[in-house]
Amino acid sequence: MTVLRSLAFNVFFFAWLALVLVVMAFFLPLPRRVMQNAVRVWTHGMGLGLKAIIGLDFEVRGHQYIPPGGVVFACKHQSAWETMAFHILFRDTAYVIKKELFAVPLFGWYARKVQSIPVDRAGGAAALRRLIRDARTQIAAGRPLVVFPEGTRMAPGTRGAYHPGVFALYKQARATIVPVALNSGLFWGRRQFVKCPGVMVIDFLEAMPEGLDRHQFLAELESRVESASDRLADEARSRFNLPL
Questions:
Q1: Which of 39, 97, 164, 239 is the least buried, fewest Cβ under 10 Å from its Cβ?
Q2: How far apart are CA 36 and CA 68, in angstroms?
Q3: Are 217 and 208 within 8 A, CB to CB?
Q4: Homologous superfamily of 56-240 in CATH?
């Protein structure tokens, strides 16, 4: 049954994506907020599909740690789900994404339209300055900004190096950094056809303290995110009888 549901959801996923990508082309000449709302319609549709077809829902914890206005969410990255989730949770989210994605037809056009922030890992100091400049602009406009410090999806229980770009946002852009833990990879794993029913948890943690140097900041951020994500994974395995 899980395999059949996963097949049905994948058909829905690509059909819904194709439809929305075509329709959104008509919004390119319109103001950014129109495109942003179209993205939110797409992500809400994906969420409804997950719940109706797979039986996969989500739960938000740590509401008290979400500050108003512009903020940077430094989020664990396990699944495709969190690339959509913040559009569901907040009205005007901006993502920091790989520069290469801006070259993808249609997707890149829309990412540029909603003012996603490109990051060029090979661009050196100049690329870092552009990241800081763009982040300051979005934060000043009151937009929540999402960054994945590891830069790519990691399976539950594994971790990648935390890149220093998030420290630049903390130090030079003077942004409030809120760590975010989750367990989405247990239900919707990287490059996995089968999606599992259950409840994904996304947990907003206390904002990073001021005055940390680079080593202290990255070590503390990694410790908070990874330990909380491991705890959520253990909880989910016990609650939904998921494999270790």
A1: 239
A2: 19
A3: yes
A4: Glycerol-3-phosphate (1)-acyltransferase (3.40.1130.10)
